[in-house]
Amino acid sequence: MIPFTKAHACGNDFLIVPADAVSSLHLAALTRRLCARNTGIGADGIEFFTWLRKDKAASGRIHLLNADGSLAEISGNGTRCAAAWMAHALGAQPGDELHIETDAGLRICRIDDVHAGSAFTVQVTTAMGIPTLGTRAVRLASGVEITGIEVSTGNPHFVLRVDNPAFTLNGLSWQTLGSELCTHPDFPNQTNVEFLRIVSANEVEIRIFERGVGPTASSGTGTSASAAAAIAFHDCHSPLTVLAPGGAQSVSWAGPNPEPANSEPAHSESGSELHLAGPAALIAHGEAWPA
Asked: Of the candidates 238, 248, 210, 263, which has an alpha carbon nearest to the alpha carbon of residue 75?
């Protein structure tokens, strides 16, 4: 049997599975089966977890597969779910730091609050690295060219600004446009797509078409990428509240380094580290048959 814990961060749900319990199995096929909403447990992906240290400098390693079995470098929400799992296992307290190695590098998660009520819930601030961002034009199959912000937060994102609460752009729904852009030839490794609506200088709203998943309720790296684009290109300010269908997260970022007059921020790593804050809750523990 395969032990698992199901967790979610703002409705973005993951299974946490000990890596040593599945070392002999085909992980992509296993992920597709367990993540299936109607015939499996249901999740947006699986974080395969290995302890590195289990003490005051607690650290672990996660390896993420999306619901379709594809490999993802990192998920901000998935990393936070893994932090919640670690916090529960260790009896972590506010102020404790958990070090989590991902395929996009080390992420340090600070436990800000712990609620051990009907569901074990933590508030976590994650150091998400220094984003890379710049403008990019993409020509759609229709021949229309659209310009967005290409952002890396350890994984790829393409952020498009919209000006209406339906999140339509060029007469297309965000789901239709997100599907085309996700697999567009200009993004050979595919990309996550976010649609950004500015509410105020300190609040934005997004919709997310996630690579390997489709429309999702939330995304930690998508929230981070959208906030970086809003701060660097659209006159928004830190800390920035980012609203998604699954709930709100907060991003703190000082922005990119100052650019010369009359220039756009370049496609380069620039500025200070970005920090993402939000909740994660454990939903259930269980066991699954290996086949």
From this structure: 210
Average of per-residue pLDDT across 249-257: 92
What's the whole-number mean pLDDT along residues 190-217?
A: 97
Backbone region of residue 189 per phi and psi (left: phi > 0; alpha: psi in -120 to 50; beta: other values): alpha
Closest by Cα among 7, 4, 11 to 84: 7
Can you tell me which residue has the tokens 């446009």? Answer: 177
What mean pLDDT is reported for the chain?
A: 93
Comparing C-alpha atoms, which of 253, 43, 28 is closest to residue 153? 253
Q: By residue range, what is the domain housing residue 34?
A: 2-127+279-288
Task: Looking at the structure, tell me whether residues 158 and 80 fall in a common domain.
Answer: no
Claim to verify: residue 136 and residue 116 sit in the same structural domain: no
Chain centroid, CA 239 distance in Å: 18
Length of the chain: 291
Q: What are the start-end ranges of the E strands in 19-104? A: 45-53, 59-66, 71-72, 97-102
182 and 229 part of one domain: yes
Q: What is the CATH number of the domain that holds 171?
A: 3.10.310.10
Pick from 184, 206, 219: which is nearest to 45 by CA?
219
CB–CB of 35/288 below 8 Å? Answer: no
Work out how many domains the chain is built from and give that number: 2
Phi, psi of 22 (to 5 degrees): -130, 20
Summarize pLDDT for 95-143 with one digit per residue, the tens.
Answer: 999 999 999 999 999 999 999 878 899 999 999 999 999 999 999 999 9
Instruction: Tell me phi and psi for residue 48, to 5 degrees.
Output: -85, 120
Q: What percentage of the chain's residues is helix, strand, coil (to nearest 5)?
A: 15, 45, 35
* Domain identity same for 254 and 169: yes
